[in-house]
Amino acid sequence: MGEPWSDIVAHLRSQRLLAPQSLQDRLLNLTDPKSVIEAATALNLSGGMLTASMLDEMIAHAGGGTPTTSVVNEVVAQPAEDLARTIAPISEPEPVDLLLRNNLPDWSEVDFSMHASDTASDITVHYDITGNSTTEGKMTDINACFNDRLQSIRKLIVQNSNLPRKHQEISRLLAEYSRYQGYENKAVAIGLVNEPRYTKNGHLMWGLEDETGEMTCLLTKRSGEDRDRAHEQILEAGLMPDDVMGVSGTFSQTGDIFYVDDLHFPLETKHQKVSSEEGVSVAFLSDIHVGSKTFLEAQWHKMVRWFHTDPLAKTIKYLILSGDCVDGVGIYPGQDKELSIPDLFAQYTEFARLLELLPEWVECVMLPGNHDAVRPAEPQPTFEKDIQQDYNTTTFVGNPCDFSLHGVRLLSYHGKSIDDFVAGLRTVTYADPVEAMREMLRRRHLAPQWGGKTPLSPEPEDGLVIREVPDIFVTGHVHGHECLDFRGTTLVCSSTWQDQTSYQRMLGFQPKPCMLTIINLKSHKSISIPFA
User: Fold this and answer.
1) 48 in helix, strand or coil?
2) In terms of CATH architecture, what is 162-264?
3) CA pair distance 350, 330, nearest whole angstrom
4) Residue 524: phi, psi to the nearest 5?
5) CA–CA gap between residue 311 and residue 324 (Å, rounded)
6) How many C-beta atoms lie closer than 10 Å to residue 327's C-beta?
7) Among 527, 456, 452, 459, which Cα is nearest to 492's?
């Protein structure tokens, strides 16, 4: 016999290959399995499920790898009477090339029912800051931005939350605090959260401010029959500075503390998705980082081959690119040492060339991120014309962008504020960035914290308020991957096309690269195709 199975598995892993059980005996009977498996690199067969035809090519390329003499003799010496006991012929199954599908569950034509080439493009932009930014960064602009945020989300709280009574101005509540000190006399206020903090006893305290004044709120830990799961979740997670929320409760005897009985957020209980009459699909990618030495170009070409050959790809009408398509220049100290393309415009030109490899039926929607050549403050306008000129069949929008495809509403946001949610809420981590997306929807705001890790532009109309709940909500930025449903909205954390960076390695963070998420606009069925 050749090498033990554990060593063969190790050789396969080095080529990112998986072997079905039907090929195990053939691999075990090779005289030099390492040489045969390493031939996958020269034949460009690395990555995916090993098939019989692939193994034949690898053996031929390696120039041997035949079974050992003892194995051949053992087969020849098998008694004739044992062969006669076979009651049905055992034939090796026909090889199925799953190299690009990676043995994924198959998809149904009922769920992905229409070819992209059978319908015209239908993109309607509802909100994009491009060409509409009017701020001068003055204090009046900041005040106008926060007033618009408060008024907009206050209406959503009144509309979607079960308030026990009509809310009142904070200044009036403070003036009449003695009226709201009994269990039956609850007060209701809606305002902005200031300086959320924990007390020594684990209670949560914050200031709540509206246009008229500010009061100090306290959410206490409860035990026994007084425990409330919703309260425990807030106490576990915390609050974000500059959240807009409603509170109901009573004042202390002196009126200096407002004891919170219930908190009220603006998200409706359940969103009803809109389905398109056209059964075409939309695919999602983010954080390609072309120009970086860690850009996974081989995997990009593998995806391009899939687009041209797989039946599912023929249903994909749109490809949403949610920011950081290039690595940029001067984004962080020492970046120049990690660039394969040191010129910014050359990075965009190269990315345009890579998009040109996709089939003609695919239309791209591209928005910027924090690595792109636009202002860092959000909401970000789209790319300048001298960058756009290299691209065909691409719609350029700002970040974030609220738009519809064939009537299905999408909200695409690069996701820089996930950094603030990770820092501000104890239940949000980079390992589970979808939790940050849930919190954005609960608050109906993409980046509530002013002065955090996300630079904000104080527009008179706060462009980061989620005014309409989307059918599909997509982010990127954190190089993770997920696709799931939350209260009727499909959440997509778009995958990256960049390998682990030196900074991520230092933090011990492992990205989830090269996953193409696909959602059908009619059935809302989703599937994720791996190309790593």
Assistant:
1) strand
2) Beta Barrel (2.40)
3) 18
4) 60, 20
5) 29
6) 26
7) 527
253 token code pair:
């005897």
The helix/strand/coil state of 54 is helix
H helix runs in 118-198, sequence order: 139-160, 170-175
pLDDT tens by residue, 471-513: 999 999 999 999 999 999 999 999 999 998 888 888 788 899 9
Architecture (CATH level 2) of domain 125-133+279-530: 4-Layer Sandwich (3.60)
Pick from 43-47, 97-101, 239-243: least confident: 97-101
Q: 189, 264 in Cβ contact below 8 A?
A: no
Q: How confident is the model at residue 32 (pLDDT cuts 50, 70, 90)?
A: confident
| CA dist., res. 428 & res. 439, Å (int) | 9
Which residues have C-beta within 8 Å of that of residue 528, sequence separation ≥ 6? 481, 483, 495, 515, 516, 517, 518
Q: Read off the tokens for 5.
A: 């199975």
| Residues 94-115, mean pLDDT to the nearest whole number | 63
Six-digit token string for 238? 């915390």
Model pLDDT for residues 350-376, shown as the tens digit of each residue: 999 999 999 999 999 999 999 999 999
